[in-house]
Amino acid sequence: FDSKKKRKVAEIYQALNSDPIDVATLRRMAISEGGLLTDEIRCKVWPKLLSVNTDDLPPLPGKELREDNKDYQQVLLDVRRSLRRFPPGMPDDQREGLQEELIDIILHVLKRNPQLHYYQGYHDIVVTFLLVVGDRLATALVEKLSTHHLRDFMDPTMDNTKHILNYLMPIINQMNPDVHDFMQSAEVGTIFALSWLITWFGHVLSDFRHVVRLYDFFLACHPLMPIYFAAVIVLYRGQEVLDCECDMASVHHLLSQIPQDLPYETLISKAGDLFVQFPPSELAKEAAQQQAERTAASTFKDFELASVQQRPDTVLRQRFRERLRGEERTKSILTKPRTNRFVKLAVMGLTVALGAAALAVVKSALEWAPKFELQIFP
User: Which residues form the Rab-GAP TBC domain (predicted)?
Assistant: First the structure.
C-alpha cells in the first residue's frame, strides 16, 4: 500500500471501531477512489452498508432445499454455466464446492422469501458475494439485498425492470442530446443494458477487481445507481455510437460489447455527479411510466435507516460540492454546460442541520415516496 491507501485503511477501521459505527464515513470510503481496497475490509464493511447484524447470522442452508423446488433445475443450469465467474486456475474440486454453496444460498433466499422470483442473472450477483465474504455471510447479505435493491428484478413480471431501464435514455438526453437522438433514430431501445443492470455488471466484466469495485459503489448508494453507471458508459462511448451505422442491429451490437478497459474510477465519479444533477425525481416523468409507487427504487425502504445514520445520497452530494469548489472541470464528452443546475446546487443555503444538498435529497426521497413519514428525518 502507498501512504494514501494506508490512510484510507486507517480511516475505515476508525469508522468501524467508533461507537456507534460511522456508516456515513464507510459509505464515503466505498464511493471514493479505490473503493474498499481489499476483500478483508469488504467482509467488515458490506454488512454495515446493508445493515446486517453479523452476530446473528442464519445457519448454513441445507441440501433439503433442493427437494421439490420449482427453481432448482433452472438454478442448477445457470450455476453450471458460471465457470468464468470463478478465479482462473482455481482447482476443479474447490470450484465445484463453491458452485454447490451457490445453489444452496439462492434456494435458501427464495425459500425464505416466497414473494421473490428467481431470474437468470441473479446467480451472477450471488457468486460475487460468495467469493468475497463466504457462504454464511453471503446468505445474509444476499437476502437483504434481494428484498431491497434487487426486489424489482425479482417480481413475477419484468414490468418494474423495464421501468428502471426507462431511466437510461432521459439521463443520456440530459448530457448528450445528439447521442440520445441518434439512439432513438436507430430504435436500439435499452435492452442492451439489461444484463448490466440485473447483474450489477457482474455478468459482463471479466476482471473480478472491477466487479467488486462497482459493488462497493452500488452498495453505498441509491438502488438506481447502476442505471446511472450504465448511462455514463454509453456517454463515454458517445463518439463510437455516433460513428456507428444508424440502425438497431449495429448500435445494439456496439453497446452490448462492453469494453473491459473502461476508466472505472472516472466513470464512478461521473455517475455520482449525474445522480446529483438529475436525481430520480426529476427523471420520473420522462421515464414515462405510471407505476413509480410500485418500485423498490421509489419506495426505497432502506432510506429510512439511511436517512438517520448513513445518508448515502448526501455523501455523493458532498463530493459533488467539493469538486465544484475546486478548479473548473476539464471539458469532456461526458460534460455539458448546465449552469443553472450547477448554480442551484451551489447556492442552496436552506438548512444548517442537514446542509443544502442533504435537504434536496430528502425532498427528492419524499417526492418519490410520499407515504414516508417526515419524522424519520431527524
Answer: 36-222
* Helix count and strand count (H, E) for the chain: 22, 0
Indicate if the alpha-carbon torsion angle 255, 161, 167, 180 is positive or negative. positive
> pLDDT 10s digit of each residue in the chain, 378 long?
588 999 999 999 999 999 999 999 999 999 999 999 999 999 999 999 999 999 888 787 777 788 888 999 999 999 998 888 998 889 999 999 999 999 999 999 999 999 999 999 999 999 999 999 999 999 999 999 999 999 999 999 999 999 999 999 999 999 999 999 999 999 999 999 999 999 999 999 989 999 999 999 999 999 999 999 999 999 999 999 999 999 999 999 999 999 989 999 999 999 999 999 999 988 887 776 434 444 555 545 444 444 444 555 666 666 666 666 655 544 444 444 433 333 333 222 222 223 333 333 334 433 433 332 222 222
How many other β-carbons are positioned within 10 Å of the β-carbon of residue 98?
Answer: 21
* Residues 11, 29 contacting (CB under 8 angstroms): yes
What's the helix, strand, coil split of the chain in %, to 5? 65, 0, 35
Cell of 314: 448526501
The reply to whether the predicted model has a pTM over 0.70 is yes
* 132 contacts: CB under 8 Å, gap ≥ 6: 39, 42, 43, 46, 138, 212, 215
Q: Which of 206, 31, 56, 199 is nearest to 126 (CA)?
A: 199
First to last CA, the chain: 39
**Spatial distance between the Cα atoms of 349 and 358, rounded to a whole number of angstroms:** 11
The three grid cell numbers given for residue 313, joined into one nine-digit string = 445520497
Largest CA distance in the chain: 62
Cis amide prior to 170 (ω within 30 degrees): no
Q: Do 190 and 226 meet the contact criterion of CB atoms below 8 Å apart?
A: no
Residue that is written with C-alpha cell 455488471 in the block: 201
57 burial (CB, 10 Å; 0-12 / 13-18 / 19+) is: middle
